Amino acid sequence: GENVEQHPSTLSVQEGDSAVIKCTYSDSASNYFPWYKQELGKRPQLIIDIRSNVGEKKDQRIAVTLNKTAKHFSLHITETQPEDSAVYFCAASKGNDMRFGAGTRLTVKP
Amino acid sequence: SQTIHQWPATLVQPVGSPLSLECTVEGTSNPNLYWYRQAAGRGLQLLFYSVGIGQISSEVPQNLSASRPQDRQFILSSKKLLLSDSGFYLCAWSSWVYGYTFGSGTRLTVV
């Protein structure tokens, strides 16, 4: 089955700096790659996603890139703010099966 | 609009007791439904998914089971809880258009 690896497990940045989280996946048939933000004790919320026919997608300060050949995708957050502090999960999906990375705890220091 | 309801929000159960967590979806028909578990400080593990009434796929061997008695209802059960069953349980539904949407979660503590 699909295996998703996510790095780093923790990331601390200064407010205003950029943050990058990277994920790799194993199943070349995966075609949907969402990113979720989870605040403490709450449900994961979709923040951005990308499908396999697209290489890059941007939404304000958040961008995701996908390299299908290398089977890796990344989340980029620019101009980080303290409210960006949370756990971020990447996921890879094909059909009915979605697998998550282990998560990255992002801390943005004011 | 589509909404997903999950209850209860928190639950404390003794070891060996039964479990029933319920999830319902509104505003869509024939959704794909999922149960995930998140252990403390860890990622999301897929437990079960269902593509239709009575159709359940299990991802990991365990003492949990799932049922889908109605199109928009998904139930997670156990006959006898273990300490290791403690965690944050999330129901989710998916569609091609909307991707995955999670319920608010149930924090289960087995004591």
What does this structure look like?
- The complex is a heterodimer of chains A (110) and B (111).
- The termini of chain A are far apart.
- Chain A has 110 residues and is mostly beta strands.
- Chain A has strands at 4-7, 10-14, 19-25, 32-38, 45-51, 56-59, 62-67, 72-77, 86-94, 97-100, 104-109.
- By secondary structure, chain B is mainly β.
- Helices cover 0% and strands 61% of the residues of chain B.
- Chain B contains no helices and eleven strands.
- In chain B, strand 5 (44-52) and strand 6 (55-58) form a beta hairpin.
- Chain B is globular and about 40 Å long.
- Classes of the chains: A mainly beta (110), B mainly beta (111).
- The A-B interface holds A 6, 32, 34, 41-46, 49, 89, 91, 93, 96-103 and B 32, 34, 36, 42-46, 49, 51, 57, 90, 94, 99-105, 107.
Class from helix and strand fractions of chain B? mainly beta
Radius of gyration computed on alpha carbons of chain B: 13 Å
Q: Which regions of chain B have little confidence, pLDDT < 50, spanning 5+ residues?
A: none
Helix content of chain A: under 10%
Q: How many helical stretches of chain A?
A: 0
User: Which two chains have the most extensive interface, and how many residues on each?
Assistant: A-B, 21 and 21 residues
Strand content of chain B: over 45%
Mean pLDDT rating of chain A? 93
Mean pLDDT of chain B: 89
- Listing every helix as H and every strand as E from the N terminus to the C terminus, the arrangement of chain B reads EEEEEEEEEEE
Terminal CA distance of chain A reads: 41 Å
What's the overall geometry of chain A?
A: globular
**Separate helix tally of chain B:** 0
